[in-house]
Amino acid sequence: MSSSFGENIRFSVFGQSHSEGIGVTIDGLPAGESVDMRRVAAFMHRRAPGNRRGDTARKESDAVRVLSGILDGKTCGAPLCGVIENTDARSGDYAPMRRVPRPGHADYPLQVQCCGAQDWRGGGHSSGRLTAPLCFAGAVCLQILERRGVHIGAHLQSVGDRSERGFTPVLLAEEELHAPGLRAFPVLEEAAGERFQAAILEVKEAGDSLGGVIECAAVGLPPGLGSPMFGGLENRLAAALFGIPGCRGVEFGAGFAAAGMRGSENNDAYCCTAGEIRTETNRHGGVLGGISTGMPLLLRVAMKPTPSIAMPQRSVDPVNMEETELRIPGRHDACIAPRAVPVVEAITACVLLDCMMEGKNGWL
Asked: Which domain holds residue 247?
């Protein structure tokens, strides 16, 4: 089981949804980098449960206790380890799922892989709860990147069949990039947020759930970051983003829409602007051949509907090989996409910092 990613910086996540705590170890961070823990706490709050309508009723502060790696407010070169206590777990809610797998979850394949020894409480190590330590890692990397002029932001672009506009693809300002993260609901347009929240509450009352799409962008990336073939910028980002429980798709720039275009429509013409080589449009999303072009990095992540729903679902009892009906008690988000917005930002920051520490653009 691999719970680590990164080449120059290694991020390793540990813990389970209902274990005493969860956390992350970050090995390879440059020494001497300031870490503002107040900013870390503010970023963690964006992901924490129970902050908006339609969220799970589980209450967790997500306060991080740093065990190592920081001295006098700066990274000291040792592995940075942060731990978050689980304080509001109700394992009894999951007793029916100890044997009967939940549709849409990893319960059954984990049961087979672990020969029945898996942690069945709240999804164990496969739970979305494990995105909390990823947000801690990302909050640290975001601060380091910002001091190098790289800024990252994301917004909830759609919920179900309702959507809002995307980021400005060419001249993306930092104010637009960061605006969603300053709002109670992470959108570019307040009216869209109201539509999204109404849809989430409607489906919650019906005992069902919704999915959504998150758009993330980064500005200030230098050209030449990444490599062709299997070590490309898209490859490394996609591999890490698929580590988010519930992620079902990742696309860059025009993404799948490019398949329906002609070359003359999809190609971005080059131009010279203020002494820099840019492109007039940005359908490539800031990456060509696995290498950054200097244009804003644009990616989208598709999150599936929350599989734990109040409606009865068909499942099986693997021990007796009998079909059965499963009702899932407990506290669950009606849509996990809003809380996944800072998670996408965090993972993007981790991967970009990792990539920026190698090659001719490396800092060490």
From this structure: 4-361
